[in-house]
## 1
Amino acid sequence: MAAWEPVADDVVDFRALGARLVARWRLGGAIVAVSTAAFAAAAFIMTPVYRATTILAPASHQSSGRGLLNSALGDFGGVAALAGFNIGTLDPETEEAIAVLKSRELTEGFVKDWNLMPKLFASRWNARTDSWKPSWSHKPPTLAKAFDYFDRHIRIVSADKKTGLVSLQIDWRDRNEAASWANELVRRVNQEMRARAVTQADASMAYLEKEAQSAQTVTARDAVSRLMETQIKQRMVANVSPEYAFRVVDRAMAPDWDDPLKPQKVVLIITGFLVGAIVAVAVAIFSGSGSARA
């Protein structure tokens, strides 16, 4: 019995393929040219999206007991790590501030105050009538839809646990608006965290004042006085610190008009050339195999 031999049709004949490509160079060249031109046109027609970035550092408040603890742990971080303690650079206050920055309440308030609904859903907004376009399949977008779109496609918040720095990125088609939105969101989260700190300090002060009146011993009164002093310091810091939760290390600036995040024109043009080349080779292969069968 003869040994098994591969079927001739399963073997790629590169010489024949090269000959077919040479014979159909005009068709192949036209396919590559059309594909490259189509991708290039798409690259220049697409609306550019710009990215504005602001770098933030968590603001430390050493007046609170938690701030003193974090400072002490930071000074002896190496020893604590050897002892088996996992110390991160993001304290609970910073984690809370990041959560507020990404929260639905803050986002919806920002969208509403800045009247961003027509911009976020521009294709559904009629600028002439200053109203939403009528549609049988879509109701006017809600703030919940705006939050979902903003959170998924526009705002990116990331934290580096090694350095403790927080990055806020805004991707938007207007480069100036992208920078303005990023800076405004930072201002709002600082304002919100300041208001929360003042409210908490006031509530604690009201409770401690009652405890001071009912304290029977000197030791108890001294302890309450120290706690009241701490709350007074915390309220003072919140009232005089505009950058309460985050200190701005690098303020968001509008990118250059010729430096969009996307589309990447060169990448798209190269992709168009490669796609055209692949299609040209495929056409040469299949047209050659069809003629061979005939």
## 2
Amino acid sequence: MSAIAAEPIPTSRLDLVPLRAGHADEMVTVLADADLYTFIGGSPPTREALRATYERMIAGPADPDICWCNWVIQLRESGRLAGTVQATISTGDETVAEIAWVVGTPWQGRGIAKEAAQALIAWLGRRSVRTVIAHIHPYHHASAAVAAAAGLTPTDESQDGEIRWRLTMTP
């Protein structure tokens, strides 16, 4: 598989900006609310830990058949960062992307995650990704609504207590 790299993705209100280590300076505040970790586990990171995580993400996986694409969600009107979206893309019988999103508490309820997820999926489709998967906690209704709005549907499969949602795209 030729490497797929994150590229800027504009939407009507947002810019999905490829992740840089320097984004940790602002993102540590975006990710500071402990309530964000209710369903995904963990706790708010320190600036240093977040920067180290971002540096590992940017370096990419050791497996050449996997690509990590990560973006920060930037609000076009203010230039502020509001969250992240990511895709782990792998090949096998088909090219599959597992996606995830996080929007900081102050920006939730504004359709930002939905707009970002839809833009990410459209971008993936232009890169020959045919299956998109998201893992969502069964009680995380807001994330389930984002997945549904982005075209994913829940399956009977689960992983680590989360429901696997799937979208099969046609070429």
## 3
Amino acid sequence: MATFRAIEAASGAVASLLDDTFEPDDFGGVELEFEVIDGSDFPDGLPSGAGIFVYRIEVNGTQRHPSGRSQAGGRRDLPMLPVDVHLLVVVSATDAGTKLALTGWIMRKLEDHPVLPPGLLNREAGDDPVFRTDETVEVTADDVSHEELLHLWEVLGAAKFDVVLLPYMMPNLLLESSLGVTEAAAVQERLARFGHLEAVGS
């Protein structure tokens, strides 16, 4: 489906979707930011807007590894690796009203656009696209237990900030291999060895 940069590109595409569709006039002219963040951003404080935080990536255990693609020369790539990407949309704002309004807007926007198109996925890839032109990525609401969410809240230090954590998942991203399957060459011919039988007693 995609190169090893699929997780990076898909996470950035979620942030780009929100940034592209955001209208400051809907929030009283307030300018908000939408970007991919990591754990180091929490201690320093979060900007007003939403951060896309990938906190868990795991191999999809329900999908059999799909076969690799056949190349032009007849070589077949190694099987693809299906992974599930779990992320949090971290909503932060200077006041409660804006934060709650932004939370509702994000949830509605991701529900309206549950599939990320290849143009958005490859926006930052330049001349080396990550996804093929016929590939998309699905974004769905994730089912996270209260215990796990509270643990994440404490570990990340999010309790120090007035934020909302929205759990989502990008299921079954297929990472392609750049290695081909090694196959033994077909048998071309069989050689028989003939000897001379010497006479008995000679």
## 4
Amino acid sequence: MTHLFLNGLGASAGAGLTYLYNVLPQLSALPTVRTTLAVQPDLRSECSGFPNIILADASPPSGAARRFWFEQRDLPALIRKSGAEVLISAGNFALRSSPVPQILLSGNSLYTSQDFYRDLRSRGEYRMWADTRIKGFLARGSLLWADRTVAPSRAFADDLRRWTGKEVLAIHHGFDRELFFADRSGLPEPIRQKLDAAKSCLKLLFVSHYNYYRNFETLLRAIPLLRQSLPGRNVRLFLTCELRSGANPGAYSPDRAAALVQQLKIREEVVELGGVPYRLLHHLYRACDVYVTPAYTETFAHPLVEAMASGLPIAASELPVHREVCGDAAQYFPRFSPEKLAETVLAIATSPAANPIIAAERSADFSWRDHVQQLLEVANSLRSRGAIPQP
């Protein structure tokens, strides 16, 4: 029996929650694995009820900095009390003095992205710039504290290795087709009505909370160009967020994007759906024509795998990680060029239909079961060696 302690206190939105929702059922299904799980209090009800998963009694304070110090100060005692043999730190930060061998799951490329730092300076976000620098310092130290660091893609593992000089193992995140397509209830009526109203339009989809590194502004600037290039056919861009303050997790201000919508006179073309539950996303993918992502930094990009599984053609920014995930199942454009983005979408929209079989086969390369099995191999290797955490 292998006993893991999974520190998921950093999961609050986006990829962190996607990871927990998909990994917990896989861990729970393994009779030789027992997992003690630490999550935020508001997630405890969603994470309870899994066989072989025990919830740790952890109540961290709010805020990333206070949570970090809570983990450093209080988590070692919880790990000892649980009797776990290996710690998996899933929130980009490791314990400096872990009582057991530690695997760090590193999944935040902002700390290594010069584009992100330039973007923050251009927006006058100097407090966020300083905050990211400090977190980056701690994240870099975490790679040195952990016994083994795992990244969700080879491209990001290479970035981390260049950043720290330490070897980083790439284990792809997965995709559970059965879980993703399980819901049969359909989309809520307000969303369905917005999709029906765009029935004759070219429907573009971008699944993301609003943030800066997903590069919304480049995508918005491409919409008027597409409108000009498709005479006789309207364009609709569906967003799973709202471009107004307070409507999205995190401290990113959507004011510049909202102003750009007004400036470009594309209010009718941009449809803000707000957050869509993960279990309903497959209905949304299949209701649209092209998936678009202009992100300028990424570590894995789960929506690309979801779009491929849904048979949706993809236009993606030219990033090594996007190439790694999609291969020939996507078309690519320079990440800061609205002109090339529009050309790429236009080529997809006016060419013969993409072969959904190629995309579906590509999505099948990613498996949460395989991810968990490879992670367990690393854990058992550390456990059998009796690795001692680095001072």
